[in-house]
Task: structure prediction
Amino acid sequence: MSMQTQIEQKLAAAIACKHLHVENESHMHARGEDSHFKVTVVSEQFSGQRLLQRHRAINEVLADELREHIHALAIHAYTPEEFSERKGQAPQSPNCLGGSKFD
Result:
């Protein structure tokens, strides 16, 4: 199973998502395959939660993947109303500036 599929399945099982999109952005970086991801999660569960709480919830679900496989994870977590206000779009990720202290 690909890391992208694994992320999708774990988030879908743990969070009642109205919308879930997982994008593998590894091609934008020199770190290798299946290392950089962007997730957009829309859920009623996020109502009344601060951004930090939402990110922590997603990080908890993906703790093993973050510890072992994922180098970078861009998280966009919205309520359905917030996502609607954004016209159903999450921000684009910035281009990689190259170079890594880890290589």
